[in-house]
Amino acid sequence: MDNNEIILRTKDLTKKYGSHVVVDNLGIEIRKGEIFGLLGPNGAGKSTTMNMICNIVNPTLGSVEFMGKDFRKNKKELCRHLGFIPQDPAIHGNLKAWENVELFTSLYGIKGRELRDRIDESLEYVGLSEKRNDYAKTFSGGMKRRLNIACAIGHHPDLLIFDEPTVGIDPQSRNFILEKIKQSNRNGATVIYTSHYMEEVEAICDRIAIMDNGKIIAIGTSDELKKLVVDDISKVTLEEVFLTITGKKLRDY
Amino acid sequence: MIFYLIKNYLKMMLRSSSNILMYILAPTIVAAVLTSAFTTLMDSYKAPETFEVGYRVSEGSVFSNGMNALKETLNDKGVIMTEYTEGDPEEIMGRMELSVFVEFKDNEYLLYKNRDARVEGQILEYALGEWCSYMMSGGAETVGSVQGVGKSGEKTAEMFAAITEASEIKVEHPFFVPAIDSTDYYGIIEIAYFAWCSIICGAMVFTAEKKYRIGRRFAMSGVSEFKLYISRLVPIVMSVAIGLLLSAVIGIVFFDVHWGNALLSALVVLMSIFAATSFELVIYNATSSMVATVVISFAIVWFMGFFGGSFETYMFSSAPQVLKDFSPIYYENRALVELSCMGKSDYTIKSILISGAIGIVGSALNIGILKLRKERS
Ligand SMILES: Nc1ncnc2c1ncn2[C@@H]1O[C@H](COP(=O)(O)OP(=O)(O)O)[C@@H](O)[C@H]1O
Ligand SMILES: [Mg+2]
Hints:
Chain A is of the alpha/beta class. Chain A has helices spanning about 45-55, 75-80, 95-105, 110-125, 140-155, 170-185, 200-205, 220-225, 240-245, and strands spanning about 5-15, 20-25, 30, 35-40, 60-65, 70, 80-85, 160-165, 190-195, 205-210, 215-220.
């Protein structure tokens, strides 16, 4: 594979909490321009992996290479190319929608007129322009999720990481968010998308990694994954793939 | 970048009205309560317009050179010093109806106080303590007010002797017994006290920030610990300053509180807000718990206030001088009270320096702790 195509690569990425190995020697490669899905049950270590990639949590071992450089060593330079949408909204309820976007976009050195334009653009993008002067605390769950996204895209990152952006929200918001992820990708951003909803992952991702107990147990397109289990891929879902490989269900219903 | 951080944090703090109300109302209410509680008490501190003090200086006493300074200053306060070269002090006090008699010996002094004239005795004690400090070029921390029938320590006397031998003593109202009423005292001092409770102003914002783990966004944006710290410090200092300023205005307009030198007083209070915020943020960053921070800092501040004159006036408080000396609030209170009644105070600069030192050390600690936390995450 052409090395230039890899935008992000993890090497032996490991996180231990005490003796509990949460992420175990993870090596994944994300190709430029793709939507990469990380599928795994709750507690698989998806968020921890994303947090390590984003320099929020320090790895116990291993490294992350981003845009051809060691991310931790070139953080100042590289962090503005990365946008992270955390699982649970990280926004200030006592700030208005636009102020939240201003605060978090300004962290990347954007200011003045440009910052104002980016605020408008980000809010427009997630469909919150009309609510720009409302306090975030008055927002519904779905709106908070959307604002959470707006706060992460104002600096025009090349790589967008969505950590379970659709958990616990209404179907409408969910479809909206999935559509936005595809739109961002069409606009040129590489996307990592984590979820435990296999239908979503299957619908929007180019490649999928299945994660369980801190390890990647299978990786490929959805068809490739299905072929691991049966020859006739129309007869199997990702859910069953997961069940066959791990012997357990992806979701606790 | 830091501008937008500060701006938005300031907005959040000013928006929580209960927060700002605390800094406006709490000092006013506490001052009103203490004023009414202590008016009669402080009135009882008021000595008669003039009273007479007997004294005697033994030949070769280290104190004799400073005697003019003492007499002139006390005279301005209506305290007349009369020398009695002969006789037993107690007998003289009885005969002349003196409430206080001071015997200046070679290198110590004895203070005789009439049991019924507590205030006069206290004024003299305080004045003599101040006088000694002044004579020792104003800076001697070893001299305190003398307790009961007191002696000055030997160390004091030695230093005193050294100074008096070396220098001509100028008389220019060298030391001072504050004549302040309870309205002014508590009106001023409670503002100073609440300046030390500044962390409350950040409590709601920080609690929300922790709950929603907003630190993640800061961590991944690579914003430096210095900027992160400044973006918390500055909005708190500004919000508290705004609240206390309004409180002070209420005091001036409705209760006729006199501040003396507004600019210097404001600077003293502002510096103490800086010190308090920085210090309390150290506790917060170290414990990561707002509840623990509030409990710990309020306990410390309460003791500082207790010894520093925030509840009982520092002039007549029975707290040992050492404990006062350890309380930054003491320096601040004293600076503010003296600024109020004399328009100047040696304690102004001391208080500013102490606050500045606490603030700077605290800031360094904060940045250090934040860095350490990031490495440990
Ligand atoms: N700070 C932490 N301390 C201890 N254990 C943690 C911590 N964060 C996550 N874990 C554990 O790591 C495991 C993986 O968590 P997480 O990465 O959130 O999984 P996922 O996002 O796939 O649901 C869980 O068992 C969780 O309890
Ligand atoms: Mg998760």
